[in-house]
Amino acid sequence: MGRMEWWLLVALSVLWGGAFLLGEVAPRELRPLTVVLGRVGLAAVALLAAVRLRGTTMARSPRAWQAFLAMRAPNNVIPFGLILWSRTQIAGGWRR
Description:
Helix content: over 70%
Oligomer: single chain
Largest sheet: none
Shape: flat
Strand content: under 5%
Number of strands: 0
Number of helices: 3
């Protein structure tokens, strides 16, 4: 692997590790769906920035946005919400 691939791997591990840290710490202070909204909202802003940096545009047709909205619950809200909710119900192995 070249230098760029190593930096991308480090960036990916920081993002994944940060998501697990956020999933452990944030539900102690915030409701799980609030954390999910923040996480998905930040991801949407990052993806919009990536689209703008590439010089492309977002889909404008109502049909495309209906598909996006239909995919949000089964692909993001439900799984992340359940994962974070479960962390408020089930203690991790290192807690006493």
